[in-house]
Amino acid sequence: MAMEKFKPHLLMILAQICYTFLYFITQASFNHGMNPHVYVTYRHVVGGLFMLPLAYFLERGIRPKLTMTLLLEFFVLSLLGVSLTLNMYFVSLNFTSPTFVASMLNTIAALTFVLAVILRLEVVNVQDPRGIAKVIGTLVSLGGVMIMTLYKGVILKNLWHPIIYIHQGGNNVVKENWVKGSILTVASCIAWSIWFIMQAYTLKRYPAQLSLTTWMSFVGAAQSAFYTIVVQHKRVAWTIGFNIDFWSIMYGGIVISGLVVFIQLWCTEQKGPVFVTMFNPLATILVAILAYFIFGEKLFMGSIIGAIIVIVGLYLVLWGKEDPKSQRKDEEKCCITKIEHQEDNMMKKFQLE
């Protein structure tokens, strides 16, 4: 019974662990020479192929009929959630670090909140403590982003030599372009926030989440392939050996686009999207720990201060978005279930007597 109660919590922790390893596997692949645009294309082809049979069999009876309007929405969703966003996101990983990128992703919830208020999808009641928490949390979170982007601070000294060494290849000079990487990371977070807003509208007309994920994977892969052919038409860039490049594509496609998507969908159904988003900072903490203690990456004081501020702001927003009425309903359901269980036990005892 206890395991069943904490099953969503354990699954979301597993999902964040999977995301944590994604940062380092992709960084190692990019340092090995993998083109980020080629990676995005191949990863979503693998993810789409993995999701296709699951979506076909599990959602056979609930998929609405496709229309030109839905196909156009799929195209825009794929652009915002896959091809445009992930290409900026993974290129920014080349210019910054896994710790910085993971920390910046914590701002997506706050940015989505701002866009929702502008589009009148979110109501802010400044007379209510939760409404005030939404506004303050958003400002605090954005302030943390500015600190992480503009301030590095002192470098924390490594306590020992790296346990695992990721070869940097010829990217040492590129890594120092912190401002360019920061701009790309912020742009990808804004695009993701718009994607979340638009996805909510699309799911009302197309309530087949696995099928929608499959469509976005294939369409996004096609969009990314078109862009990549334009900017990188050399055949050698598209050739993948049986090395870290191959495993990073398989991991990103199957584990992240497959397993983690299933976990997030199930947890969203059980606990809601706020519950799922609350676990994002866990990846930030895990990435920072692994980057510093295992991989020997430089850790700047500005990143630590900014990340802490971002997480504090994020949790203020999430607390403000929680509905106390739904919590009371859950408590009432739990009490009713306990009473019914007690009544069943009393009836059984009465029958035995």
Structure description:
This protein has a two-stranded antiparallel ribbon with strand order 1-2. It has 16 helices and two strands. By secondary structure, the protein is mainly alpha-helical.
Element layout with pairings:
Layout: H1 2-5, H2 7-32, H3 36-58, H4 68-95, H5 98-104, H6 108-118, H7 129-150, E1 155-156, H8 172-175, H9 178-205, H10 209-231, H11 235-238, H12 244-271, H13 273-277, H14 280-294, E2 299-300, H15 301-321, H16 324-352
Antiparallel strand pairs: 1-2
Helix pairs in contact: 2-12, 2-14, 3-4, 3-10, 3-12, 4-9, 4-10, 5-14, 5-15, 6-7, 6-9, 7-15, 10-12
Search tags:
mainly alpha, two-stranded antiparallel sheet, 16 helices, 2 strands
**What about the largest sheet?**
2 strands, antiparallel
Assembly type of the chains comes to: single chain
Helical element count?
Answer: 16
Strands ordered across the widest β-sheet: 1-2
Q: What portion of residues belong to β-strands?
A: under 5%
**First-last Cα distance:** 29 Å
Along the chain, the helix and strand elements come as HHHHHHHEHHHHHHHEHH
What is the helix fraction of residues, given as a range? over 70%
What would you call the shape?
Answer: globular
Structural class comes to mainly alpha
What is the residue-mean pLDDT, rounded to a whole number?
Answer: 79
Put the structure in a nutshell.
The protein has 353 residues and is mainly α.
